[in-house]
Amino acid sequence: MTTALTDEQITRHLRRANGVAERAMAMGRHPFGALLLAPDGETVLAEQGNIDTVNHAESTLARSAAANYPGAYLAQCTLVTTFEPCAMCAGTIYWAGIGRVLYGAQESALLALTGDHPENPTLALPCREVFARGQRPVAVIGPVPELEEAMTAPHRGFWQRLRGRL
Ligand SMILES: [Zn+2]
């Protein structure tokens, strides 16, 4: 079982994940960020920003978590991410055995910003639907509407700038 997160922890962890997203953007990558929380819901075990279109922050972090921690431990851990994980990432989180996901903004809020950008052809499949097909439970917290503004901030303008480069 995972430890219940307080509103303060939810806000603080999501803001830290957003800082990871901003760092990824500063390195020329897409502004997405994720954290892995220990079973105490407080200790940050790892941070990961977006790498590329098949190495999203969440899938990369989930693979590294599975390589470094036993499943029984990861079942009590939480993956924190700025945006709702896509189907690829939700699948990897599931196979890594991570027990809980906390995300800030919904995938649909991102689609509104990326539009039909060829570097982010959003895969519209809610993570809860992916997890519902599994054999073990993955708890989901999100979206957190009061943080949507903060989570989408790095994306505002980013996709338009990218479009200008095409
Ligand atoms: Zn993804």
Describe the model.
- There is one protein chain.
- With 166 residues, the chain is an alpha/beta fold.
- The protein has eight helices and five strands.
- It has helices at 7-26, 57-68, 71-74, 87-96, 107-114, 127-132, 148-152, 158-165; strands at 33-37, 44-49, 78-83, 100-105, 139-141.
- Strands 2-1-3-4-5 form a five-stranded mixed β-sheet, sandwiched between helices.
- Strand 1 and strand 2 (44-49) form a beta hairpin.
- The longest helix is centred in the first third of the chain and has 20 residues, at 7-26.
- The protein is globular.
- Zinc ion (ZN) binds at residues 56, 58-59, 85-86, 88-89.
Blueprint (SSEs and pairs):
Layout: H1 7-26, E1 33-37, E2 44-49, H2 57-68, H3 71-74, E3 78-83, H4 87-96, E4 100-105, H5 107-114, H6 127-132, E5 139-141, H7 148-152, H8 158-165
Parallel strand pairs: 3-4, 4-5
Antiparallel strand pairs: 1-2, 1-3
Helix pairs in contact: 2-4
The structure holds zinc ion.
Zinc ion (ZN) binds at residues 56, 58-59, 85-86, 88-89.
Question: What can be said about this structure in brief?
Answer:
Helix content is 44%, strand content 16%. It is of the alpha/beta class.
Structure characteristics:
binds zinc ion; 44% helix; 166 residues; 5 strands; alpha/beta
